[in-house]
Design a protein that fits this description.
There is one protein chain. The chain has about 80 residues and is of the alpha+beta class. The chain contains three helices and four strands. A hairpin with a 4-residue loop joins strand 1 (about 15) and strand 2. The relative contact order is 0.20.
Length: about 80
């Protein structure tokens, strides 16, 4: 069986495209998890999906975007 590699979000850095900069992985929130629901791989009621959706909703909330338009806080990657 092949070994699975999981990057440590506490030490891994992610380079965001289009001038987004280099950021710790734990501060980057993506919407790709929504594809798992769309393709029927995970239920919309799955605890991982619900927690991820809550994190994404917080990240893209009007208050967060007003306070941290492109700096500080989390960096949202909305692809869903």
């Amino acid at each position: 069986m092949a070994k699975r590699f999981a990057a440590d979000p506490n030490t891994t850095m992610i380079q965001l495209a289009n001038g987004g900069g280099l950021h710790p992985a734990r501060n980057v929130v993506g919407g790709d998890f929504l594809h798992l629901v769309r393709f029927g791989i995970r239920s919309a009621n799955d605890p991982i999906v619900r927690d991820s959706n809550r994190s994404l909703a917080t990240c893209v909330s009007r208050e967060n975007l007003a306070d941290h338009p492109r700096r500080g806080g989390n960096h949202c990657l909305v692809n869903g």
